[in-house]
Automatic annotation (TrEMBL), chains A, B:
Domain of life from the UniProt record: Bacteria
Annotated protein name in UniProt: Putative competence-damage inducible protein
Ranges of residues in domain MoaB/Mog: 6-172
PANTHER family per UniProt: NICOTINAMIDE-NUCLEOTIDE AMIDOHYDROLASE PNCC, NMN AMIDOHYDROLASE-LIKE PROTEIN YFAY
InterPro entries for this protein: CinA, CinA-like_C, CinA_C, CinA_KH, Competence-induced_CinA, MoaB/Mog-like_dom_sf, MoaB/Mog_dom
UniProt xrefs under Pfam families: CinA, CinA_KH, MoCF_biosynth
Annotated family: Belongs to the CinA family.
UniProt signal peptide: none
Length: 416, 416
């Protein structure tokens, strides 16, 4: 069966440009992974006659139509009503959905107005897709071999509904025996083209799992997607491919899925029971801001000195005047002293420092992108790393912080 | 004439979910401002027969069709060719466009391959829209009262092309004599619903300029859009409405267009020749990071102490042990001492401090969202502000920093 899918988003706010159609992007990715071809996206306003004509158009050219939006309680929400009319199928109350809506109001201690009941109306004969993050349920119905799926508009409701129920509906409906499992591997410290070159033969020779690289914000991710009717075997296929890849580029691998370098650093500091403080020049507090963005940061982070001027480096951080005069603020020596000083002043196990030229102008004669990162861990000698980064002021600052986390993770993994 | 506009994006990468259709959002906003109604968005892949059917569909229901994408040099780029076929209009070489493409290669010192010439082909009789940021020109053509506009896919080329040439084409073509001028007013410290309530009668009674409120990240913006054939009068209409609005809510107004609170603070510190330093607890370095994100920050920002633990507050920031014991770290007294200490230690004109409970747990018995911000400006008494913020950990931190900038701007505006 040749499946031709169309995604119809319903909502005047899209046609006014108030929001972007991110739902269509999300669903397109999901459907591509399921192996369903998407041929059209359509956006239509909250207007019954134009929606009707969009549905009739879609019926001519597609055999799976996925709608987003227009399932809410207001009179503008008319997706179900219009589809019901076009298909000649009644709307009926779904008891479970109605109970769930009533429960939602009880839990959030609000009064339920009558129009909310409208959200429990479903197209007769449809399979209900539960809404775990809102009130309006979704639904899917097969009429004469055409599949219609209705999903809510807010991405926070639509995405989990599709992931948890919509995807499975299609797999069952279309008789896909295979479970589809994805795993995202995250890398830092290696460029996208280098990583691709290093594993090109694996990517090329590989169909299950497939391997899709993506670069963003100085990081590279690989998305592995395996299909198999036995979920354990799909997992095993992922494990094997991950191992083959990381045998080559494992030194740059730092975590799975949506994790971040600073999150991995945080976990590792907790695990090792170590505390950290920072002395930041070019990064201006960004490392501290990142690490304190996580709950429970006070267990591992004591504080920092943002020494943006030499005066603060000398007078608060107590870097020796001689060091600044002899080597300059952007130097290995200054970085080392900054890291050691912050560790001592804050009585932390680890001190990390960042000094460099973020641009747009060179700093103390050092070209833009020159960055020194020092890590002081007590008895051992401090480690100092020099970077030559390219890009914007913001890009240089962000990547400096990420490199700092990357080096810390490496060093922490080496100690007891 | 009732204008029904449709935007057709051409590109398989959209149907695979690799990119989001931000072009449709941008154009929808622009067209709404021009007063053109958008009835449909369509996305179709790089497939001539499906594009052909999308064009035929659009011809039935719309009288302005704007295409994005498919104007490039590769064989996948087939928008012009398909439209040419559907409309029965030849493609001809545009001499100026060809010269411009050749110039582009000369300037970027690259060799021009033959297929690049294809980009200079235009639909016979069209008005050329210059591409100032790429090679493929856009075009617009009126055939039997239907307007077809073709724009490139990359937003970096499409947006300036529409802003600089496309908009004017429509204004001239549709006989709009009016210049359309927008102005964005930015507010902080007032909620969207409060601001709307305060000026509801102005919004309701107002058609030129129109007033559109929008809330995001704890800020509210008002977009005023005036139309008049005389640009000076349009500006005057904007000035008058701005004055009427700010007579009521001016205390919350902080700037125009894309500016930020920290940017306004930075400008003001430069203008007044003042330096600043910060003592940050709950914000963890975010204020420092924001202020150092701007070029030239070292002229006004000396540094900061991120005192995430009481130990650092005492030992580096030199807050008295007694203050912490008697009042706690989340207190007016502690905030005041933090601000005064950082000002003295860093020898800055101004010290600002942030202490509070960002969550998810209460801090020292203070409920999540309790925040104290103190500003010390030397001889004067310090100002301390108490906030009770709601929202996520991140939201509380971001809004604390914004409130800090907001208070600083107010205080700086009061001094010489």
């Amino acid at each position: 069966m040749n499946i031709r899918t169309e995604i119809i988003a319903v909502g005047s706010e899209l046609l006014l440009g108030q929001i972007v159609n991110s739902n269509a992007q999300f669903l397109s990715q999901e459907l591509a992974e399921l192996g369903l071809s998407v041929y059209y996206h359509t956006v239509v306003g909250d207007n019954p006659s134009r929606l009707e004509s969009a549905i009739n158009n879609a019926k001519e050219r597609s055999n799976v139509i996925i709608f987003t939006g227009g399932l809410g309680p207001t009179k503008d929400d008319l997706t179900k009503e219009t589809i019901s009319k076009v298909l000649g199928r009644e709307l009926t109350f779904d008891v479970e959905a109605l109970e769930s809506i009533e429960r939602y109001f009880t839990q959030t201690k609000r009064i339920m107005s009558e129009n909310n009941k409208k959200q429990a109306l479903v197209i007769d004969g449809s399979y209900i897709l539960k809404n775990d993050y809102g009130m309006a349920p979704g639904m899917a119905v097969d009429i004469d071999g055409m599949i219609y799926m209705l999903l809510p508009g807010p991405p926070s409701e639509m995405k989990p509904m599709f992931e948890n129920y919509g995807r499975e509906y299609f797999q069952t409906k279309l008789g896909f025996q295979d479970k589809i499992i994805s795993r995202v591997l995250r890398y830092f410290g290696i460029g996208e083209s280098q990583l691709e070159t290093d594993i090109q033969d694996i990517i090329d020779g590989q169909t299950n799992p497939t391997i899709a690289p993506l670069a963003a914000d100085g990081e590279v991710t690989l998305r592995l997607t395996a299909k198999h009717k036995d979920e354990h075997i799909a997992q095993k296929l992922l494990n094997e491919t991950e191992k083959r890849i990381n045998d080559r580029v494992g030194e740059f691998f730092y975590g799975y899925e949506q994790t971040t370098l600073v999150h991995e650093l945080n976990k590792l500091l907790m695990k090792k029971g170590k505390t950290i403080s920072a002395a930041e020049s070019l990064t201006g507090g960004m490392f501290s801001e990142y690490i304190t963005s996580l709950d429970g940061a006070s267990q591992i982070f004591k504080g920092s000195i943002v020494s943006y001027t030499n005066e603060v480096k000398e007078q608060i951080l107590k870097v020796q005047k001689r060091t600044l005069e002899q080597f300059g603020a952007v130097s290995e020596e200054c970085a080392r002293e900054m890291a050691e000083q912050i560790r001592k002043l804050s009585k932390s196990d680890i001190g990390i420092s960042f000094t460099g030229a973020a641009g747009p102008q060179p700093h103390e004669g050092q070209p833009v992108g020159t960055v020194f990162i020092a890590i002081s861990m007590g008895d051992q000698n401090s480690n100092v790393f020099k970077l030559n980064l390219a890009g914007s002021r913001k890009g240089i600052r962000v990547r400096s912080v990420k490199y700092g986390c990357h080096y810390l993770v490496k060093l922490l993994n080496e100690i007891e």
